[in-house]
Amino acid sequence: MNIQGQAALVTGGGSGLGEAAARELARLGAKVAVLDVNLDNAKRVAADIGGIGIRCDITDTESLQAALDQAAAAHGPARILMNIAGIGTAKRVVGKDGSAAPLDDFARVINVNLIGTYNASRLFAAACAKLDPLEDGERGVMMFTASVAAFDGQVGQQAYSASKGGLVGMTLPMARDLAQHGIRVCTVAPGLFATPLMKQLPEPVQTSLAASIPFPPRLGKPEEFAQLAAHIVTNTHLNGEVIRLDGALRMAPR
């Protein structure tokens, strides 16, 4: 798909990897709707790229549908969806005091990362399926954002790894399901990236994490994630695939 002139939706577009993806899509000529629970961040990014910033909670169908409607009114029907919104947590199954991990924490991460992504994807796909086909019969493309934790999650990452593993497992069946509508589905599983959250860690910790990456021995750059996201859009034969973007990193247990 040619990105130029297409309407694109980026969940979690107000910061980090989502912001990088929004900026790259806009640079390539897309009309970008920046969707984020933090409206100030969404508007800040949108103002920089000539897009529209919309508050959106992907776990709330009413909020999500309203955001999609607002984006469509501004830019026309979207053919590109970047699912990047997500949260993390670290909880041992049995705490130091011997108590079981709170179930609410596990459910919250699954609800945002996995169910929220599915929620955005199903609404996007239903609207996209009604559009006229482009070259190769393509109507749209969506990307999930997983993590290397889907494959080698560390101690305490049960909820996060399960949510990202769910996205990996959902990729191929959703691609097969939506093939009849000309909608492609791919997933990127990033490793350690220099996001605002990462930069909050002490410098020695960041240096140590970077040194664990075989090559290049540095944290990933958000723009590298964004470049891959954009390539998924433009390479029509990429479908049903999960791509690790991690510098050959394999996470240790701790």
Automatic annotation (TrEMBL):
Keywords: Oxidoreductase. Pfam families: adh_short (PF00106). It comes from the Bacteria. The keyword Oxidoreductase applies. PROSITE patterns: ADH_SHORT. Signal peptide: none annotated. InterPro entries: NAD(P)-bd_dom_sf, Sc_DH/Rdtase_CS, SDR_fam. Belongs to the short-chain dehydrogenases/reductases (SDR) family. PANTHER family: 17-BETA-HYDROXYSTEROID DEHYDROGENASE 14-RELATED, SHORT-CHAIN DEHYDROGENASE/REDUCTASE. This is NAD(P)-dependent dehydrogenase (Short-subunit alcohol dehydrogenase family). It comes from Hydrogenophaga laconesensis. The lineage of its organism: Bacteria, Pseudomonadati, Pseudomonadota, Betaproteobacteria, Burkholderiales.
